[in-house]
Amino acid sequence: MTTQPRPPSGDGFSLVELLLALGLALILCGGIAQMQVGLQRSADLAMRVMRERRLQDRTLDLIRSDVLRSQAVSLGGGATSPCGLGGRQSVLELQTEAGTIVYSQGSPPSSIWRGKVLMRCGPAFSLTGEASPGQFQNRVLIDGLQSEGFTAKNLDGTRLQLHLIQEFMGPGGPTVLENGILTTML
Predict the structure, then answer these.
(1) Cα maximum dimension of the chain
(2) Which residues contact 173 (CB under 8 A, 6 or more apart)?
(3) 59/177 Cα distance (integer angstroms)
(4) Hey, where are the domains in the chain?
(5) Rounded Cα gap, residues 114 and 177, in angstroms
(6) What are the φ and ψ backbone dihedral angles of 99, each rounded to 5 degrees?
(7) DSSP code of 97?
(8) What is the pTM of this model?
(9) CA 7 to CA 4: how far, in whole Å?
(10) Tens of pLDDT along 95-148?
């Protein structure tokens, strides 16, 4: 007895239809995966920008509090730093009861820092947050500064404009962040 091939019935899909559906599904999955990677990169950049912005805000707040505690403000050069500047340029010098505070920018003290740095040389802080006279520290406040990354400008003898420009590499190339504040001088 010989068997006869069955005539095709209308039930089910042909092999070509199944392969076409599988190909379309793979293309769709690839597109979704690419979108997910792009969204993750955007989220990473947004988090980095927020973190750097927060560091800039904290740095400018520290400088503002030092300016408000100072008896005299001098812009760039002149004062002798108790910490040594290591070739960095003095940008802002403040005379306080606890001693001289010098903000300088330039080459980093070690290779762990990105690009130019802003450093604070001045009295150390106690556990209560008060300046300790006689104990001086030289600390990096922020890194990744552009050539004129930190500027201080005396506007009218009573107000001081502080400005930071920072740069870091993002997924699409360099990202530049600027931040500034206006503070009064006593």
Answers:
(1) 114
(2) none
(3) 14
(4) 49-184
(5) 14
(6) 135, -175
(7) T
(8) 0.77
(9) 9
(10) 888 888 999 999 998 999 988 999 999 888 878 877 777 678 889 999 999 888
